[in-house]
Amino acid sequence: MWNSDLLDLDAYLDRVGFTPDPAADRATTLRGLHRAHLAAISFENADVRDGVPIALDVPSLQDKLVARRRGGYCFEQNLLFAAVLDRLGHEVTGLAGRVLLGRTGDIPRTHAVLRVDRRWLVDVGFGGGGLLEPLPLVADQPTRQGDWTFRLDHADGVWTLRSFQAGAWFPLYDFTEDPRTPADYGILNYYTSTHPASSFVGPLLAQRTDERARHNLKDLELTETRPDGSVVKRILTPEERATVLREEFGLELPDRATARA
Question: Transmembrane segments in this chain: where (predicted)?
């Protein structure tokens, strides 16, 4: 399903700077690879914003995220990661999430997430301050990852991922365990990358989360948010933005992406 036979695994591992330890157990390898991917490949929507079609086949993902050292959003990141995990012998099931970020109402399920080995929530493509490591699919079990703490709630067949921020449990997204295929993601990807109501077709976005903070770029505004709720904001010039994208997010974006205000 994940076309992992088309993946250049060695090139991917070199891109994220991870060497699997043959003596390590599967969970340890999965955690290390998850962290390595997040540290190396930032979330970004430059192609979506500029109207460049988003291809989800493995060779295209490999070319963009590995060879050209770009980032991507959830469909690109998690489908590439699914191919990697499948190639390494993990059981990977695609799921679809509803991005909440404190919102309520009729919100479509447009976020790709993964269930791995039937016991882990895996997500390297969430731009809203998501997991650093896989999270066990267990309800009401707060888990510390760096300075962040996450928890899953489960009710009526729906899981909700929450992050403890500013003294409260903040909902990030919910999801069910109904399997989704790459073809399903193709439809969701088309909507998310082209529909005027999609938040990804507007401003330039780049995001990465580390042990201590979420770093978010929205057009010319750079924000650093910590789990205690403290926020530091800075307005950049276009020249400063290009430097920040390169030095803080590890992204070499096309000139068209950085030239626009």
Answer: none
Digit-coded pLDDT (tens) for 133-142? 999 999 999 9
Number of compact structural domains in the chain: 1
The pair of structure tokens assigned to 64 is: 């963009």
CATH number at residue 81: 3.30.2140.20
Query: In the structure encoding, which two tokens stand for residue 74, read together?
Result: 């959830």
Catalytic residue among 47, 111, 174, 215: 111
Residue 255 has pLDDT above 80, yes or no: no
Q: Is the pTM for the entire model greater than 0.85?
A: yes
Q: Report the phi/psi class of residue 101: left, alpha or beta, with left for phi > 0 and alpha for psi in -120 to 50.
A: left
Tell me, yes or no, if 123 is annotated catalytic.
Answer: yes
DSSP structural state of residue 205: E
Which residue among the candidates 34, 37, 47, 74 is catalytic per the annotation? 74
- Tell me if residue 10 is catalytic: no
Identified catalytic residue from 47, 86, 90, 123? 123
Range of the domain at 50: 4-259
